[in-house]
Amino acid sequence: MTQTSKFTSIITSPKSLVEAAVAPAVGASLIVLIPLIAMQFTSEVVWTLSDFIIGWAILFSIGFAYQAIARKSQQVTFKIATGIATFTTLFIIWANLAVGIIGNEENPLNLLYFGVVLLAIFGSYIASLKAKAMFRVMMSVAALHAFVSVIGLSIFTEQNPEYTIMNVIVINCVLTLLWIVSGLLYNKSAEVLDERN
After folding, report:
1. Do residues 90 and 50 lie in contact, with contact meaning Cβ atoms separated by under 8 Å?
2. Which of 45, 69, 72, 166 could form a disulfide with 38 if both were Cys (CB 3.0 to 4.6 A apart)?
3. Domain range for residue 169?
4. Which carries the bigger pLDDT value, residue 48 or residue 174?
5. Which pLDDT does position 5 carry in this prediction?
């Protein structure tokens, strides 16, 4: 069975879909219980019903994506690469919705980061999750993330010269590095496959 057909069987098999959905559903439910419990003890945490629904949906989607993708390979490096990529995607989405990466969550410049996430998602789909192709996708995503960061910060600092951006620079450098590490691990996974063949 080819890598592409393995991926197709994961997505189309009802049993595989259910198996891949159970852990993310339980995990997402447990995580959103944290702010619910915190709200009983402090007024610092204020979540609305929509916050819980959106939070659960994001956590479930990312967890499900990891489960579905990681099942396509038994290689540890492939699974780690996938874990790093899905975590980075989760962080970008969550940070943008919660507080924003640049400025605050209402800053329209943060919408640029969703372009990075979309490239990661659609690039992975086009690459059929093949390790070598995923290496190229992750490197492209890292380059776009760096570009978006530079453009966004340039515009923001021009509009807000008093704002300290060192923490934003550090966050973006770490996120870009995570994309690169994920790509390198996918490349390592591809090399292992080549050696076996």
Report:
1. no
2. 45
3. 102-197
4. 174
5. 46
